[in-house]
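Input record, target 12 of the design panel.
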């Protein structure tokens, strides 16, 4: 990919965001129009296609923004490369998250038997949210991190601002889904959703920052979506305390010591 000299990272961020929103909002915009006109239902095959294409906006944009000649090997390395002996970061947050959700839940989804969880988890990792991580953590987070480190000398605030910006953009990207008739988002509280997305940004930024693994981020994102679907959460003090503790741990471990150079090949 050719970029403007001296503005490489800024240009790549803009390119990624524009491609992502164009693909997703165009697909979801058509879906909004069709469902509101009652031309199709959300569960219609065309509706599912439009919904799915929109969900893969960040994935497609991330692949399009890879530098150099595109190949399956390059995409494979982009997803599966990781720092050695860093899986503990993923496992730590996964255990804390499972405990929090379990303690904060009032029960489980009767329509989702426990033996279906492995299949649901794999679907969430590769198609139901985890696929977005090629874009948000694999592309935007490291690029914006490099830009912010050049402008905000304090490492803590550079990290906080970078992660907040990614989280806010990520949340905004989801907004059209609340206007799709029949979508799951129409049953969700928007404020709680935005809160969870921004909090998740700090969890996933920690995992990517320490592991440089897009795949580990995909696994954590898939786990979050699986747990949200399986358990019935009550947003009481246990929920907020648990999320606060996980986020505090993620932030502390992210800025505890330098993580080395930002991944150069995102």
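The sequence produced for target 12 reads:
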């Amino acid at each position: 990919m050719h970029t403007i000299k001296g503005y490489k990272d800024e240009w790549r961020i803009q390119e990624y965001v524009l491609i992502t929103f164009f693909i997703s909002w165009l697909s979801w915009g058509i879906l909004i129009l069709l469902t509101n006109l009652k031309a199709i239902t959300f569960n219609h095959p065309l509706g599912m296609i439009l919904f799915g294409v929109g969900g893969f906006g960040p994935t497609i944009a991330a692949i399009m923004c890879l530098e150099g000649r595109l190949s399956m090997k390059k995409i494979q390395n982009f997803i599966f490369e990781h720092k050695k002996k860093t899986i503990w970061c993923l496992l730590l947050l996964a255990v804390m998250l499972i405990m929090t959700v379990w303690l904060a839940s009032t029960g489980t989804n009767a329509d989702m038997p426990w033996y279906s969880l492995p299949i649901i988890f794999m679907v969430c990792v590769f198609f139901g949210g985890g696929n977005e991580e090629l874009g948000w953590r694999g592309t935007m987070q490291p690029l914006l991190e490099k830009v912010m480190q050049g402008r905000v000398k304090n490492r803590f605030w550079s990290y906080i601002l970078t992660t907040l910006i990614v989280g806010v953009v990520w949340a905004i990207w989801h907004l059209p889904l609340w206007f799709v008739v029949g979508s799951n988002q129409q049953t969700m509280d928007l404020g709680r959703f935005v809160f969870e997305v921004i909090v998740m940004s700090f969890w996933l930024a920690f995992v990517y920052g320490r592991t440089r693994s897009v795949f580990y981020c995909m696994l954590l994102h898939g786990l979050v979506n699986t747990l949200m679907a399986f358990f019935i959460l009550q947003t009481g003090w246990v929920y907020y305390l648990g999320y606060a503790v996980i986020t505090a741990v993620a932030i502390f471990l992210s800025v505890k010591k330098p993580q080395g150079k930002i991944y150069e090949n995102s």
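The longest strand covers residues 105-108.
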